[in-house]
Predict the 3D structure of the following.
Amino acid sequence: MRVLHAFHGGVHPPENKAQSTGTPIATAPIPPRLFVPMSQSLGNAALPCVKTGDEVLKGQKIGEADGRLSAAVHAPTSGKIVDIAPHAYAHPSGLAELCVVIEPDGLDAWGERKPLADWQALPAADVRAFLADMGVVGLGGAVFPTHLKLSAPSLDTLVINGAECEPFISCDDMLMRERAADVVAGITIVATLMRPKEILIGIEDNKPEAIAAMREACKGNHFEVVTVPTIYPSGGAKQLIRRLTGKEVPHGTRSTDMGVQCFNVATVYTVERAIEHGEPVTSRIVTLTGDVERPHNVEALIGTPMNFLIDYAGRRTGVSEVLMGGPMMGFALPDEDAGVTKASNCLIARSPALLPDRPPAMPCIRCGDCASACPAELQPMDLYWFAKAKNFGKAQEWKLFDCIECGACSYVCPSQIPLVDYYRFAKGEIWGAERDKKAADRARARHEFRQYRVERDKEEKAQRLAERAAAKDLAAPSSQSTLPADDAKAAAIRAAMERAANATSANVAAPTLSDDAKKAAIEAAMARAAARKAEKQAGETQRSANVTQPAAPAGMDDAKKAAIQAALERAAARKAEKQAADTQEQGSANRVKPAGPATMDDAKKAAIQVAMERAAARKAVREAQDAGQKDKNRR
Amino acid sequence: MTSSPFMARPTTVSMVMLKVLGALLPGIALYAWFYGAGMLVQIALASISALAAEAAMLKARGQPIGFFLKDGSALVTAWLLALSMPPLGAWWMIVVATLFAIVIAKQLYGGLGNNPFNPAMVGFAVMIVAFPAQMAQWGSAGAHLSAGDQLAYIFTRALPPGVDAIASATPLDHLKTQLTLGASVGDTLAEPVYGHLAGAGGEWIALAYLAGALFLWRKRLIPWQTPLAMLAGVAALALPLWLVDPAHFANPLFHVFAGATMLGAAFIVTDPVTGPTTPRGRLIFGFSVGVLVYVIRVFGGFPDSVAFAVLIMNIAVPFIDQATRPPAFGAKKGGRA
Ligand code: SF4
Ligand code: SF4
């Protein structure tokens, strides 16, 4: 027997799972319309790659992954795209999301299914790309793209999460009971890709059938089905990892850093469907339970409206709202028209009789029950106090962000204080403040830069005037001819720098949030690269000792131009210096009245000016980089 | 409630308080058995004053009266106070003590959950400081007055004909006096008033409190740390001193069963509102109270000192909580992996 490790806290709410496990997984009927949200992963929403009026087949890609954290979206059934527009979406915010609306043709006809036949022989990166393209994401609720979790350098333990600790939910239980072989095949694929030293499948002991089925399916390989005690939240990845391996994954650390990776059973099932059968994620098992006539599990197409499913299960009168997810961490659907997403593991028709409202809260009596229940080992009553007093600094110091919002504290509180609501509020406030601060920083940086520029321009102008005056005084023909040219050059450089500065500051000040810092960083990196390239080019130019000034290639960017110009000027200055020296030598040799000093002074001046400008340019680049870096750090 | 969790354990503050009152019942029954019905009168007086004071204060503070009266916390305070006061004390004493407890120590701090000091202990401490003589008059278990005579005595201070004094010192008080007079602990404790352990009947009442505490612990309404640590704190000094000089220091069992030690361990240091919330903090708090109880009792000016020990340690609770905050999950020193 494996030694299990306790995790702190946890609660044991009434399970309410038996209601929905009496009948096998049914196939939900195809609704008249499917609303397939493009946002089906932790990352950006997929970009629709079909248009209204298109006919699609089941499994055909309708949304292209947008970025690393995104995953593709596929048509759940065959039919016609009738609209691509924002529609109700399963999120507590109630905000609409872009959905592809499909009118099914009722045939449910698959498009071409191309399994990844020789996946064992392919590089792991190709398999990962394939999975991203098949829309495989974590079905446990976090919808983290699976392909990203598959790349761990070395792994001690692969944990397969079949704990399913939330009350009411039984979709994973039924999946393991009925499709254990596919689940185990999926585990085999993941194990082959990740090469862990051991593979543990954790299942709570209130699912004896699932445990038996999985044990049976695991015969002949070294996967170990581990029975864990039924206690909420043992299905939390960190809690399960702790339970099975004894390792604690601190907040802000990835479990892979500790040699463990965790996948939900439903996720590895979809991995297998994708690789062995070429089937993208077009449906998922959803528990329909609560106040319905026939609580059971269905395999429902992604995009099926939630109220359609609840009606299908027999909505009872008195249902006040529908919850998505479990009663501990789920949320009330703001709009039951929303389509099933890959995260929709459970729908609970809620009536006040089944899940009564919380009685009015009493003051905290500091009983500490919440602290003994908290699996994150926090002091919830202190966090509550700080959140209530809007003392967010203290709340953060007391590890507010370690809170996984499991609700165990609210569950046990005898004063019936909705503790988690306070934490959500505090987190929201802190994020909001962070955003405001970022914006303010950006505004300040922009202001300071403008101030600096104005000062610099003033100084330069003064300097120029002084120079011109000096030149006039000297009235040397050579200087007369060179000065305007110098001025023009300096103006060009200044203009270039200004443009570059404007570009960066404009970027820095752009109001959109998360992407700016990235953009600024990229911009800075690009500027750096450009500067480097320009310097190199300039170096080459210098080396080739071109006296004639090459026309700067059109389209070359300003920084480059400036750098080249600077280099040229340097070269010119050096040449002028040399000439001047030569002239002097000759002069002294030939005893000709020296015309040198004036020329020499001019050349030196020019050289100094160029050097100064170079320094200013470098400083500007550095500042841009700093700004980018700072933004990155703050993220 | 449109945000998770949508389930809540059906425990409420009222239920917690009701169970605490229930756990006090065996102790009260034995108390009445040994000391007479006067005890019940004290409890009734305390309850009525507490509810009235609470209601008046809630009204003055613009709080919902019924909602808070239901929570039962005022009754718990009242009962604990009544059990700490002399059973045949004058009626106004318990009323004044209760008013102090509810009005000053609880409501003026913001009511339930906001009081830093244990209200019952504040009420008791005020009385013993203000009326030391009256507070020292304990109806001895041997004075078997009829219920009616006890009642009359509480309200009128009139004794039935033929009885000229019913009040005697508490066992702790008596021991202290005897020790100053040069008697040895052994001789004093052999007097019949001490019963088997710590005052005739006293040890049975203490055992009944202990049973109540076990019940509450089984119901997960009180932690084991505070009571056990408090008893350990009492014994920590009592045991070595008794071993070294048994003639001058009573044995640890005596101190554990005498006076308000057991009532304190079971029901007073376990008050959630005024105690620490962390397990380690509860150990520290309980142990310190125990040590202080012993030190004040044996070396200090008051014969029984649970109230002072608790109040002193109440001051330290915020610091204890702060210092004992356990590290968050995954943040153990040296890693628990
Ligand atoms: S469980 Fe509720 S009453 Fe008890 S300490 Fe926590 S917040 Fe306060
Ligand atoms: S919701 Fe947060 S504070 Fe409450 S028990 Fe869960 S992790 Fe702890």
Residues 479-483, 506-514, 545-556, 583-600 of chain A have pLDDT under 50 and may be disordered. Residues 203 and 280 of chain A are 26 Å apart (CA to CA). The first helix of chain A runs from residue 124 to 133.
